[in-house]
């Protein structure tokens, strides 16, 4: 792309576009400034794994790329942050390889900042924070990896960046709108709304307006990567830029996790691996375990059938800590202190010990856009029990190429309890067969190498 300019005297010259300038920098191996917008960059979740694997990929392959991350204000030093990344993801990033820009307006990106009209206000707040970020540091390539697409028009129109989005889930979707229209109670649609016709109508109008605004984001994005079939379908429909849009599955450490033994008998232990956020629906795991004991008292009374459940996840703030306290109260309510344990912010090596030895991996979020922990379960040799929706349903816990079952899917507490019982009663031969099929399936479909190639193709699209 070139821009024609007419000078006095009638002489016509051409000026290179932003993309042409970046192409020249890459070709000549000159410094290319790339910046990631990711305020909670050390939270330890799946989104952060995508971020840091991307950073590691660039560092190993492009010496001329200068990497910056826009992040929340923190008292942690760069060294302490990178030590956390080492613990969380086993990635060794050196202090001189990366820069951090701390954002004073970061709280505007936090949903809890807004008691009402949260969807719209959070996105506006993120756009304001993004403006602060770009004023403080203007990169050649701007990569948005959290889901705040409203920053993209600012980066493109005002700062002339090459704009890339890695979308974990759309800010608004047809599914959300349908739930409001049908007055279905959900994490994003409280009982106060569903029981009030006026509020439901107002929220529906508000969602439809938000959808129209969000639909314009694709026009200001040069390359769009989505993390799953479910997200791809929604973004393709909303942003309507199919030629710019691709699926790049998140990275999964299949090489290391696949060294874990799958032939030996495992501990009767169920583990969950997800940040402690409302949408992860940890309470369903506890309720399903309680239902299992209710329907099959032998699991409570017979020591040979004793099965432990361990909920492992990251805690980012006081809101997450409140969820953990509520879950502990739920455990006490069902008299499950002997059976259920919660572990927060576990180091990577300790997490791997649980992945090596546990029998079942459980995941309960509805409409989980991808669900990387399901792949980690399957690679590590756990029998996976996930929610019958979105990423797990369409991409992950699907039959392998020979039609063999690779895991279990459930929707209700009752279904989860029944699946847990079925898995716990499986023979060792059947368990080993399912583990083998599941591992082979995810190794072929998901890997760090495939992510690295897909991500760099996305970042460098049209460059």
TrEMBL record:
GO terms assigned for molecular function: GDP-Man:Man(3)GlcNAc(2)-PP-Dol alpha-1,2-mannosyltransferase activity
Tell me which UniProt keywords the record has, alphabetically.
Endoplasmic reticulum, Glycosyltransferase, Membrane, Transferase, Transmembrane, Transmembrane helix
**Annotated SUPFAM superfamilies:** UDP-Glycosyltransferase/glycogen phosphorylase (SSF53756)
Which pathway does it take part in? Protein modification; protein glycosylation
Could you tell me which residue ranges the Glycosyl transferase family domain spans?
264-438
Give the subcellular location.
Answer: Endoplasmic reticulum membrane
GO process terms (BP): dolichol-linked oligosaccharide biosynthetic process
EC assignment: the record states 2.4.1.131
Annotated catalysed reactions: an alpha-D-Man-(1->3)-[alpha-D-Man-(1->6)]-beta-D-Man-(1->4)-beta-D-GlcNAc-(1->4)-alpha-D-GlcNAc-diphospho-di-trans,poly-cis-dolichol + 2 GDP-alpha-D-mannose = an alpha-D-Man-(1->2)-alpha-D-Man-(1->2)-alpha-D-Man-(1->3)-[alpha-D-Man-(1->6)]-beta-D-Man-(1->4)-beta-D-GlcNAc-(1->4)-alpha-D-GlcNAc-diphospho-di-trans,poly-cis-dolichol + 2 GDP + 2 H(+)
What is the enzyme's class at the highest EC level? Answer: transferase
Q: Has UniProt tagged this entry with the keyword Glycosyltransferase?
A: yes
Record-annotated ALG11 mannosyltransferase N-terminal domain positions:
33-239
A Pfam family that the UniProt record links to this protein: ALG11_N
* Chain's role: GDP-Man:Man(3)GlcNAc(2)-PP-Dol alpha-1,2-mannosyltransferase that operates in the biosynthetic pathway of dolichol-linked oligosaccharides, the glycan precursors employed in protein asparagine (N)-glycosylation. The assembly of dolichol-linked oligosaccharides begins on the cytosolic side of the endoplasmic reticulum membrane and finishes in its lumen. The sequential addition of sugars to dolichol pyrophosphate produces dolichol-linked oligosaccharides containing fourteen sugars, including two GlcNAcs, nine mannoses and three glucoses.
> Which protein are we looking at?
GDP-Man:Man(3)GlcNAc(2)-PP-Dol alpha-1,2-mannosyltransferase
Organism name: Anaeromyces robustus
């Amino acid at each position: 792309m070139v821009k024609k300019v007419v000078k006095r005297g009638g002489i016509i010259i051409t000026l290179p576009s932003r993309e042409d300038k970046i192409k020249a920098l890459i070709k000549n191996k000159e410094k290319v400034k790339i910046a990631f917008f990711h305020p909670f960059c050390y939270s330890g979740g799946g989104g952060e794994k995508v971020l840091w694997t991307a950073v590691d990929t660039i560092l190993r392959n492009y010496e001329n790329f200068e990497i910056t991350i826009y992040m929340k204000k923190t008292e942690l030093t760069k060294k302490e942050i990178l030590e956390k990344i080492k613990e969380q993801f086993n990635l060794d990033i050196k202090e001189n390889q990366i820069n951090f820009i701390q954002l004073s307006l970061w709280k505007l990106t936090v949903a809890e900042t807004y008691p009402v009209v949260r969807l719209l206000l959070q996105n506006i707040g993120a756009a304001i924070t993004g403006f602060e970020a770009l004023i403080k540091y203007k990169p050649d390539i701007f990569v948005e990896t959290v889901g705040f697409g409203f920053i993209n028009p600012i980066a493109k129109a005002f700062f002339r960046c090459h704009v890339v989005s890695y979308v974990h889930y759309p800010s608004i979707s047809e599914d959300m709108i349908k739930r409001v229209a049908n007055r279905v109670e959900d994490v994003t649609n409280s009982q106060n709304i569903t029981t009030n016709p006026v509020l439901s109508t107002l929220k529906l109008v508000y969602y439809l307006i938000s959808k129209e605004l969000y639909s314009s984001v694709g026009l200001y994005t040069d390359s769009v990567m989505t993390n799953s079939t479910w997200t791809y379908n929604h973004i393709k429909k909303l942003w309507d830029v199919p030629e710019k849009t691709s699926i790049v599955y998140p990275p999964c450490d299949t090489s290391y996790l696949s060294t874990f033994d799958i032939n030996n008998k495992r501990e009767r232990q169920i583990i969950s691996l997800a940040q402690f956020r409302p949408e992860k629906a940890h309470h369903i795991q506890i309720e399903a375990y309680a239902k299992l004991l209710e329907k099959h008292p032998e699991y409570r009374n017979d020591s040979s059938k004793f099965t432990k459940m361990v909920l492992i996840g990251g805690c980012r703030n006081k809101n997450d800590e409140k969820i953990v306290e509520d879950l502990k109260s739920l455990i006490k309510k069902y008299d499950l202190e002997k059976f259920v344990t919660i572990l927060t912010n576990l180091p990577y090596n300790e997490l791997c010990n649980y992945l090596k030895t546990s029998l079942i991996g459980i995941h309960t979020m509805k409409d989980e856009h991808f669900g990387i922990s399901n792949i980690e379960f399957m690679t590590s040799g756990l029998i996976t029990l996930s929610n019958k929706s979105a990423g797990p349903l369409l991409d992950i816990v699907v039959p392998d190429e020979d039609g063999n079952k690779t895991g279990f899917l459930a929707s209700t507490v009752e279904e989860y309890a029944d699946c847990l019982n079925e898995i716990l009663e499986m023979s060792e031969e059947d368990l080993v067969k399912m583990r083998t099929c599941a591992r082979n399936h995810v190794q072929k479909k998901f890997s760090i190498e495939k992510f690295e190639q897909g991500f760099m193709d996305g970042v460098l699209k049209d460059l």
